Structure formats: C-alpha cells, structure tokens
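Schema walk-through. Below, the input block comes first and the output block second. Nothing else is stored per chain. Lengths vary across the set, and this one has 148 residues.
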Amino acid sequence: MMIGNYRINLGAGIVGFILTFFVAYSSNLLMTSLIRGLIGFVAWYALAFGLRWGLGLLLTSSAGSKGFDYDPPNGPEVRGSQVDIKLEDDGQELNDLLKNGQNASSGEEIPPSETKAPTGFAPLDPPKLVRTKDPEELAQAVRHLTDK
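--- output ---
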C-alpha cells in the first residue's frame, strides 16, 4: 500500500521538469532543454513513486505489527511453513571433545572416544628454511645487480 495517489508523483515530476528545464535553458538550446526537462520529469516521478512506496511499506508494517504476538492461522495454510529437522545424536562425541578441551589445560591425556571415526588428518610439517649463502656474498650480488 502506498501513501497518497498518483497526483503526488505527477506534481513531483512537473516540479522536476520545470527546475531542470530552466536550469538547462540558461546555457542550452530549446530542444536540448526540453529533452533534459523530460528526463528530469521521469527522474522526479520515479523518486516520488519510490518515496511513496517506501513510506507506505514502513507505515503499514509498523502499524500492522504490535510486537512479537503471532497468531498462526488455523487450517491447511500453515502446512509447509515450518521445518522440523532431526539430526543424529552427536552427544557422546561432543562430550568427549569438551572433556579433552578441559583436561588439555590440566595436562592430562584422555584417549579419543571409540565412536569417533578416524579422519586421516595429519598436521603439516614444512621443511625448515636454511641459509646456505654467506651474507657478504648476497650483499655483493645485490650491489652487482644495482650497478647495471
């Protein structure tokens, strides 16, 4: 629902046409000013339409909602509007993870649960970077490259 009627849009478009036409007419030909005035009319009409639509949307949604009270309609219209999902029970694995996290700070080791499947994860062990060149030799190479 929108506030007002199309006359508000039309009035805004006419104001936009007049403003744009006179500003453009001061430095352009009549035909160019008319074209720019028509573009101004369309732009102001669209802006007024968007403003009316946005205000109507805001005012009807705020007037229609009285807080968090929701009374679902009775009957088959409600069917399909709610989704009930049941997941498998991961309670034991979650408990093991929580116990391991609490005991890791105390230094105790607890073996993983038998219900936990092996993931095949192995942490990355990158090779160490070792300098094989003498720093003076590297400095000489840089000096040689910057001389050219």
